[in-house]
Amino acid sequence: MPASSSAQSVSVISKALKITGQLESTEDIHIEGEVEGDVRGVSVKVGQSAKIKGTVYGEEVEVAGTVNGKIEARKVVLTSTAHMSGDILHQDIRIDSGAYVDGHCRPEYGRADGKAHAVQKAAAAHGEARPGFAAAKPAEVRSVA
């Protein structure tokens, strides 16, 4: 039985966790800890204490913490506490006053010639159920508390 969007689950990575490797979910992800590797989710929220080193993919990505890498998302929100170092591929973007951005913002998400489209095509070729989700490698999880 498919879940409605209002009944979706949220995977939470707490402040006490550090993940090394790809993190992927077919639902929403909320990160408060550290991730060294790519993150894929439907909606990805990067909390104020979060640090990500890698690419963040999603339909919607909201950043209040630190991302060193790249964001590829339909809708991107950088809150006033966001610290983004890297390029952002988007369709819709909001950057609040106080946010730090060191990189390019390009409205190329989902274009036929864009990399995001190539990722979706590759996932479809591998029989993935959701576009943009490729097979993940196992992640290593460590407590940093």
Explain what you see.
The structure is a single chain. The protein is mostly beta strands and 145 residues long. It has one domain (9-127). It is built from one helix and 15 strands. The chain has a 15-stranded mixed sheet that branches. It starts with 9 loop residues before the first strand and ends with a strand.
Which tags fit this structure?
single chain, 145 residues, mainly beta, 8% helix, globular, disordered C terminus
Quick description:
It contains 1 helix and 15 strands. The chain has one helix at residues 115-125, and strands at residues 10-13, 17-20, 23-24, 28-31, 34-36, 39-40, 43-46, 51-63, 66-78, 83-85, 88-89, 92-95, 100-102, 105-106, 140-143.
Mean pLDDT: 81
The Rg value, from CA coordinates, equals: 15 Å
Tell me the major beta sheet. Answer: 15 strands, mixed
Shape: globular
| Low-pLDDT ranges | 1-5, 114-145
How many strand segments?
15
Cα-to-Cα separation, first versus last residue: 38 Å
Structural class: mainly beta
Strand content: over 45%
Count of individual domains = 1
Order of helices and strands: EEEEEEEEEEEEEEHE
The portion of residues assigned to helices is under 10%
Count of helical regions: 1
Topology summary:
Elements: E1 10-13, E2 17-20, E3 23-24, E4 28-31, E5 34-36, E6 39-40, E7 43-46, E8 51-63, E9 66-78, E10 83-85, E11 88-89, E12 92-95, E13 100-102, E14 105-106, H1 115-125, E15 140-143
